[in-house]
Amino acid sequence: MSRTLKSTPLSLSSPSFSSPFSLKTYAAPHSTLSFKPQKSKAAHTNICNKSPLYSTKRFTSPQNMLDNTSSSSSTRQNRWNLHGRTALVTGGTRGIGRAIVEELVGFGARVHTCCRNGSELDKCLEDWNDVCSGGMISGSVCDVSVGAQRQELMETVSSIFGGKLNILVNNVGTNIRKPMVEFTPEEFSTLMTTNFESAFHISQLAYPLLKASGEGSVVFTSSVSGFVSLKSMSVHGVTKGAINQLTKNLACEWAKDNIRSNAVAPWYIKTSMVEQVLSNKSYLEEVYDRTPLRRLGEATEVSALVAFLCLPASSYITGQIICIDGGMSVNGFFPSHG
């Protein structure tokens, strides 16, 4: 099953700026200091002399300036596109995951995604096919909480992309909301396996493909629950805290192979996953009160950051967990009255 999204390369350009600096001299009226004055004629009037402060290279013809601008524009375009790159996005048929798939394809990447529900996957592929053709998006059915299926997924990805993978987005996650003391062993295992073990194992399996690509980027979907305490989300927070630490460890461990590792940590985003809890108007108002921007996030606001972390433009960013939360995680006591 594969489909294509056609995209237009992002073109950014801006004028070049020159910042000439001037030479200043300072007098120090101290009896123990003595400065031998320089002849000003050679230093300041002859712009073609051999002084390292002055060089004819600083002065270029109009044609050279145009050539340099064209070269700069080309370099800038390369920083802001993913043409020729490959990506795996787990859980890419709804919510944040779907937004990530579409964002990466929009920047020119070929994307493979997966989900547990075959009919849901087929519907997404059909929707994507309505706006594209070819092999830009492919998909397979996979329950990432099952080890054997994770192995099969990565074999499929390796086959489709010729043994190389530039981008891995570990997006799958779930939640069970209840007080910590009420968790059963089975529920605890479900969250740990789905949220953390799956991402850990898929990253292991993807490592040879990421290394073979010569330039890899791993992005984990974490949560603000990995930073701050949220009601009835103690186990969820544990899994996301583990994701945060894994993000940092891989950034250091895989840097030698030119593989970067980062994570995004959303607060409440408008997706089907949070529809039920936010249907309570009083609860929703409390969410707004806790969020300085006083609104929910959009899935595209998360996908935009994920895409940036995969672009060459972010090539010096690794080991970072970035909150997308409207300011919630940095909000202390900021009352509206008083």
From TrEMBL:
Record's signal peptide: none
Keywords: NADP, Oxidoreductase
Source organism (scientific name): Populus euphratica (Euphrates poplar)
UniProt similarity note: Belongs to the short-chain dehydrogenases/reductases (SDR) family. SDR65C subfamily.
Region Disordered: start-end pairs: 54-78
GO MF terms held by the record: oxidoreductase activity
Source domain of life: Eukaryota
UniProt-listed InterPro entries: NAD(P)-bd_dom_sf, SDR_fam, TR
Name the UniProt record assigns to this protein: Tropinone reductase homolog
Polar residues bias locations: 54-68
